[in-house]
Amino acid sequence: MTPECNNDCPICLNKTTRTRNDETNRRLSVNKIRQLIDEASDIGMVGVYWTGGEPLMEYKNLLHLSEYSSKKGLLPTVITNGGLIGAYGNYKKQNQMLLNKAGLFDLDTSQIVKSLKDSGIIRVYFSIDSSHTTLESVYSDVYNVVPTEAVSRAIIAFLDEGYGKKHNLDAIGHQLRVTATSSGLLTKPTNKIVEDVMRKVGLKLKEELSVNASIYKNEKGQVFLRRLNVASLGDAENFDDNILENKKGEKLFDIQCPHFIPREKAYDDGKHHGDLFIDYDGIVYTCGNHAYPVGDVYEESLVSIIDGINNPSNDGNFSLTRNVYHSLLVLSRHTGIKNIAIGEALRMIYSENPELVHNIQTQCGACSSLGHRKDLQQAFLKAFDKHYT
After folding, report:
1. Which UniProt keywords apply (predicted)?
2. Domain with CATH 3.20.20 in the chain
3. Is the pTM here over 0.85, yes or no?
C-alpha cells in the first residue's frame, strides 16, 4: 500500500527504510488497487494481504480497500508492526506527526481495532523482533527500540474483538499471528522481546508445532507464533555472517520452501495455489521476499501474468524468471522433492558449475538469487532440461 513506515528495520524485505522511501516515483493508486482486487476476484483468489511499509500509515484507504475486497470475496489480512495501533503515552507523543498524518492520533487502540474489524479484516500478522527500530525510540524494559507495550495493547484489543480463533478455511488458518525474524546474534534479544509481549498480553505456551512454530493461548483465544531467519536481502545484505542464517555450499541443498507445497486441505480442494506479491511500484513477485519478478501490473493483467507462468515463453522482460518459476513448480511435483524444490535446483546448478553456488548464502537469500541472477537461472534451466525432460 505504501513505502512509508513508522519503523526503520534493516531486515525489511520491502525496501521501506527511511533512507530508501523515495526510490520510486510510481505508486499504486487506490483506483489501481481496486482494479487489481476486481481481477483477483474474477479469477477466484481467496484473500488479500495489506503490507507496506506500514499499512496503518494509509489508515483510511486501508479501511476502504478492505471493505471493497471483502465485498468482492477476498478476505483481507493486514501485516503490521502494531506500533501505530497500540500507540499511547510517550510513544504516542513522540510519533504524533506520523499518527496525525495517518489519521490515528485522536483514536484509541480499541477504536482502531474495531474499525479494522468492521472493514472486514479477517487476520492480523504482527511483526516484532530485535532488528525492528521505531522511528522514535520509546522506553521498553526489554529492548529500548521495540515498543512492546504498544504491540501488546494492540494484540489484547484484537483478542477482545474475537480474533483469537482459527478460521474454517485452511488457507487462512490462525487469525492472530506473530512473526519474529532473527538468527545468530539477533536470536537472544528477539526471544526476550517475544516473551515480553506474550507476558504482557497474558498468553502462555500451549503447543510447540515445530522448532519454528508455536501456539500461545489465554482465556480469550490463541496466537500463532512463527519464527523466521534473517535473509541477506535489503539492508541486511550488509550484516555480518554471524547475524544471517548462513547456509552455504552443499548445505543449501536441503532448503525447504512451503510456497511449493500443493496444499491438500486448501480452499481449492487440493489444486496448487500460491501468493502473488504486488510491490507499490507495480512489479509482481511470486513471493513476499521479492524472489521471483514475473510481471508488471501496468503492462499486463493478473490473468496474463499467471498465464505467463503456466505457459512460459522466451520473449519479454520476465520470460527467464517465468521459465525458472514454472520449472520449480514442475519440480515440486516430482516424487520425493515437493518443498525442497529450491534446494534441488541449487544441487542441480552445483552439479553443472559448483562455482556459481559458492558465494550464495542463507535460505531466502539463496532463493532470491535464483530469481534474479541470469547465470544461475540459465544453469538451472539447462540442468532441468537435462534431468527432467
Report:
1. Iron, Iron-sulfur, Metal-binding, S-adenosyl-L-methionine
2. 18-240
3. yes
